Amino acid sequence: RRVAMTPALQADIGRIDAIWDDCRRRHAGQGPWLFGAYGVADAMFAPVALRCRTYGLPLGGRAAAYLATVLEDPLLREWLDAALAEDVIVAADEAGQPPQAAAGAGDAAAP
């Protein structure tokens, strides 16, 4: 799924790029994570990194390197692999399906 690049979206991407770039510039000598060692900020930004990957968002050098670090994290990879192996699908939670379609063709609609 792709979304149109708007000025607001570009500003949000630029802000993330700037935050990641600044943290990596200041803490590069202490390890590959935002503040050197893995921490809560890295856990918080993991979903953002996944969105960057999904949508192919443009990031600069240090921010792109940080994105690669996050996406190569063994614990994140384990979590993603487990999600791919999941075989239970909750139709109502699937993107693009209206709630009435998720209930099933033969099910009566709730009043």
Primary descriptors:
111 residues, single chain, flat, mainly alpha
Question: What does this protein look like?
Answer:
Helix 1 crosses helix 3 (61-71). The model is unreliable at 101-111 (pLDDT under 50). The chain has 5 helices and no strands. It has 111 residues and is mainly alpha-helical. It is flat, with a radius of gyration of 19 Å.
Summarize this entry quickly.
The protein contains 5 helices and no strands.
Structural class given helices, strands, pairing?
mainly alpha
Helix and strand sequence: HHHHH
The percent range for helix content is: 55-70%
The largest β sheet comes out as: none
Number of strands: 0
Alpha plus pi helix count: 5
Q: Can you lay out the helices and strands and say which pair or pack?
A:
Blueprint lengths: L6 H21 L12 H16 L5 H11 L2 H12 L13 H4 L9
Helix pairs in contact: 1-3
